[in-house]
Amino acid sequence: MEHVDFNQQLIEFLNSSTTPWHAVASMKQRLDAAGFKALDEKENWTLESGKGYYIIRNGSSIVAFRTGQKPTDSAGIRMVGAHTDSPCLKVKPNPEIRRKGYFQLGVEVYGGVLLNPWFDRDLSLAGRVSYLNQDGKVRDALIDFRKAIAFIPSLAIHLDREANSSRTVNPQTDLPPVLMQVPEDDKTAFADLLREQLESEHQSVKVKKVLGYELGFYDTQPAATVGLKDEFITSARLDNLLSCYIGLRALIDSNDEEPALLVCNDHEEVGSMSAEGAQGPFLSTVLDRWCGEGRGRTLARSLMISADNAHGVHPNYIDKHDENHGPLLNQGPVIKINHNQRYATNSRSAALYRHISDELGLPHQSFVVRSDMGCGSTIGPLTAANLGVTTLDIGVPQFAMHSIRETAGSKDGLTLYKVLREFMQRESLE
User: Fold this and answer.
1) Residue in 291, 312, 309, 289 with CA at minimum distance from that of residue 300
2) Residue 87 pLDDT more than 70?
3) Inter-residue contact 390 to 349 (CB < 8 Å)
4) How far is the C-alpha of 352 from the C-alpha of 337, rounded, in Å?
5) DSSP run (H or E) holding 131
6) Going by C-beta distance under 8 Å and a sequence separation of 6 or more, which residues neighbour residue 133?
7) Rounded CA gap, 325 and 11, in Å?
8) Contacts of 168 (CB under 8 A, 6+ apart)
9) Could you count the other beta carbons within 10 Å of the beta carbon of residue 202?
10) Average pLDDT rounded to a whole number, residues 161-178
11) How is 265-304 classified by DSSP, letter by letter?
12) Residue 40, class by beta-carbon neighbours within 10 Å (0-12 exposed, 13-18 middle, 19+ buried)?
């Protein structure tokens, strides 16, 4: 079946993309294989029509685009946006904790983490390390321990009889993962462990000193299809690497006739205000260099689809949804609407998506949050405000958003991919 092949490649991407840096590296590998050319922000660009290019900023955000065969100011750009980061536990700068012979690391909560599912999981560690090499040069390298090196043990119910009714999680005291047992006079420095891992993963690297790092713990259980009839995909980081992969595949597989672009920003989960976030200048700078004086006319003819997962209606918590807007897994991507502009969808952008989806004979759904509940947001409103471009917010429905393990329908990713691929090669956005 078509969606089985699609999901197998998706699972490979999810398993390799343990951090935003690893996700961008995975995307770069696929873009290189598809013939896209890397551009350097520090250098001049010479762009040719009908070619593919990509730019990486901070190693954790990426913009990839096809120039198309037509001028952007007459054709517009078919844009898709997603984000590379997911809520997790990140290691603090001075993390070493030694208590009762256990070596632990202090962690900082990144984003809106659903904390309870992190207990009693087999955890590994990955991210970017900055170091001084033997030649006195500051360099960066990615590391991923891959194997389970840590865990956060629960407190036994015998020691907390109210655990199932009232236990709360203190992120400062309850979350430091256990890595190993050490003698009382232990002097292990976390930087020494990183040096060993760097030189183990990168045979040519000789580390004189570790200067800094951005590292996050993750669950080592690989992504998988589950369900009696394989109806579901479960994985860490479905929010929002699922959308990154769908957008990437759509861009690579579309033809080279129309100008099309994919942007995957870091830091969405913490507000997007960074040099590489959606509130930063990254995408705008790329468009300036690509479109030149025609940027204003280009954006007036363009459309941005912000792809970020949606809340599927939970069968045990049906009352958490508006009774007419409870998206179901495997019933199609979800058009997200909020008139207070937490989502950027308007009637025109939603109409275009529905029209393309209907033409392809594919399902779609709509989501509006309950009127008595707060609404999340995406990079959609930020991008719309920064660029002045018509925008649609859409996403695959899922369970357990921001958990260490999330669940989506096994058919919805392929459905969204087919619509985005058609959108990226569509002749007219009128």
Assistant:
1) 291
2) yes
3) yes
4) 14
5) strand 123-133
6) 139, 205, 206, 207, 208
7) 29
8) none
9) 15
10) 93
11) ES-GGGTS-STTSTTSSHHHHHHHHHHGGGHHHHHHT-EE
12) exposed
SS3 363: coil
- pLDDT tens readout for residues 205-242: 889 999 999 999 999 999 999 999 999 999 999 999 99
Q: In residues, how long is the chain?
A: 430
- pLDDT on residue 1: 64
Chain centroid to CA 373: 25
Give me 334's structure tokens: 């979800």
CA distance 377 to 342: 5
- Is the model's pLDDT at 429 over the cut of 90? no
Query: Whole-model pTM?
Result: 0.96
Angle at CA of residue 30, ends 305 and 7, nearest 5° = 70
Sheet containing 138-144, strands listed edge to edge, beginning at the edge strand earlier in sequence: 138-144, 123-133, 207-219, 88-99, 102-110, 178-181
Q: What's the order of all strands across the beta sheet hosting 232-235?
A: 224-226, 232-235, 406-409, 397-399, 310-311
pLDDT the model gives residue 375: 83
Rounded CA gap, 314 and 68, in Å?
A: 42
Give the torsion sign (CA, 345, 350, 356, 357): positive
- pLDDT tens-digit map of 43-79: 999 999 999 999 999 999 999 999 999 999 999 999 9
Which residues does residue 397 pair with via DSSP β-bridges, in sequence order?
310
**Reading across the β-sheet that carries 334-336, which strands appear in turn?**
37-38, 52-57, 61-66, 260-265, 78-83, 303-307, 390-395, 334-336, 365-367
Mean pLDDT of 310-336: 92
> Once rounded to an integer, what is the mean pLDDT over residues 183-195?
94
Identify whether the C-beta of residue 222 lies closer than 8 Å to the C-beta of residue 17: no
- What's the pLDDT band for 119 if we cut at 50, 70, 90? very high
Angle at 267 between CA 263 and CA 271, to 5 degrees: 110
Q: Of 426, 411, 362, whose CA–CA distance to 6 is shortest?
A: 411
C-alpha–C-alpha distance, residues 225 and 332, integer Å = 18
In the chain the domains, ranked by start, together with CATH numbers, are: 2-86+236-424 (3.40.630.10), 88-219 (2.30.250.10)
Q: Report d(CA 154, CA 156) in Å as an integer.
A: 6
CA angle 111-115-121, nearest 5°? 115
DSSP classification of residue 151: B
Listed range (13-17, 226-230, 340-344) with the worst mean pLDDT: 340-344
Look at phi and psi of residue 341 and say left if phi exceeds 0, alpha if psi is from -120 to 50, else beta.
left
